[in-house]
């Protein structure tokens, strides 16, 4: 009996120790997403706005006067396929140098993730007028005649057209709609950005780059002389924006 008691005590302490170790590995941390902007590698911020100094893939010289866009549905996918989607969305406003960094209120557990993604714009479940008072006050709404919901991006500036005249452009991304058909025909043009696999060990900062020049060049070489305004009701133009957007974002680094 005297020999059994020490053995039982040792077993109990071992179980307690193992339980404590397992608990220690389940740690909740924050993820922050920082966005920077460049034109084929040259840094861009609002101090570079309002001056014609960039040349797109079609050879047109242009300026940037406004750039803001929406990201949502930040998702961490575990190696077993389980997904953790963080609450919230972020309207990044380069024009006013605001919301360039976003830390969702939800935390994530440390561990291995097969990929981290975010959505450019809103998916169809989230894209409804009236849901977001802050976006309403930011004049982010899409008119009802174009399907309602919200913009994905507002990108504006001026360019030198083929008559050597300084002309405005408004490169606004929304869900593609064809008003020539009854009922209206829609095509999804939000897209998911895959930041790749990562092992999270601590609070993590994802440093993401947007190459603004990519909106004009791949796979569609954008001709501002023919596609500079009234692009929201232009079904084909919206699809082209969607296609060009696939190469715009890249993960620069992750710090932990």
Give the termini separation. 52 Å
| Cα Rg | 24 Å
| Shape verdict | globular
Average pLDDT, rounded to a whole number, is 92
Contiguous helical run count: 3
Count the E strands: 19
State the share of residues found in helices, binned by percent.
10-25%
Please indicate the count of domains: 1
H and E order? HEEEEEEEEEEEHEEEEEEEHE
The proportion of residues in beta strands is 35-45%
The biggest beta sheet reads:
8 strands, antiparallel
Structural class: mainly beta
Low-confidence stretches: 4-23
Organism: Jejuia spongiicola
Domain Copper-binding protein MbnP-like: 31-228
Protein name: Copper-binding protein MbnP-like domain-containing protein
Report what the structure shows.
InterPro entries: MbnP-like_dom. Residues 31-228 form the Copper-binding protein MbnP-like domain. This is Copper-binding protein MbnP-like domain-containing protein. By secondary structure, this protein is mainly beta. The chain has one domain. The chain contains 3 helices and 19 strands. The chain has helices at 4-25, 133-137, 235-245; strands spanning 28-29, 31-39, 42-44, 54-55, 61-62, 66-78, 83-85, 89-93, 101-102, 108-109, 111-120, 153-160, 166-173, 176-178, 185-187, 191-194, 198-200, 204-211, 249-255. Strands 6, 7, 8, 11, 12, 13, 16 and 17 form an 8-stranded antiparallel sheet that branches. Strands 2, 3, 9, 18 and 19 form a 5-stranded mixed sheet that branches. Strand 4 (54-55) and strand 5 form a beta hairpin. The protein is globular and about 65 Å long. The chain starts with a helix and ends with a strand. Residues 4-23 have low confidence and may be disordered.
């Amino acid at each position: 009996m005297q020999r059994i008691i020490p053995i039982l005590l040792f077993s109990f302490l071992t179980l307690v120790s193992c339980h404590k170790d397992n608990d220690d590995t389940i740690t909740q941390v924050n993820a922050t997403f920082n966005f920077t902007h460049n034109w084929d590698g040259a840094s861009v911020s609002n101090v570079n706005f309002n001056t014609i100094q960039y040349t797109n893939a079609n050879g047109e010289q242009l300026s940037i006067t406004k750039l803001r866009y929406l990201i949502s549905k930040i998702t961490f996918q575990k190696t077993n396929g389980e997904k953790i989607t963080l609450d919230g969305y972020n309207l990044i406003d380069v024009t006013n140098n605001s919301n360039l960094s976003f830390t969702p209120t939800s935390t994530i557990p440390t561990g291995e993730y097969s990929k981290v993604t975010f959505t450019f714009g809103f998916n169809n479940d989230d894209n409804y007028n009236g849901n977001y008072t802050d976006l309403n006050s930011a004049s982010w709404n899409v008119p009802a005649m174009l399907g309602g919901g919200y913009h994905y991006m507002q990108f504006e500036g001026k360019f030198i057209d083929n008559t050597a005249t300084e002309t405005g452009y408004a490169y606004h991304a929304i869900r593609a709609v064809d008003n020539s058909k009854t009922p209206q025909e829609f095509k999804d043009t939000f897209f998911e950005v895959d930041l790749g696999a990562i092992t999270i060990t601590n609070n993590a900062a994802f440093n993401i780059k947007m190459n603004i020049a990519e909106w004009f060049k791949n796979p569609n070489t954008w001709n501002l002389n023919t596609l500079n305004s009234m692009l929201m009701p232009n079904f084909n133009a919206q699809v082209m924006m969607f296609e060009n957007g696939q190469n715009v974002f890249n993960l620069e680094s992750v710090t932990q």
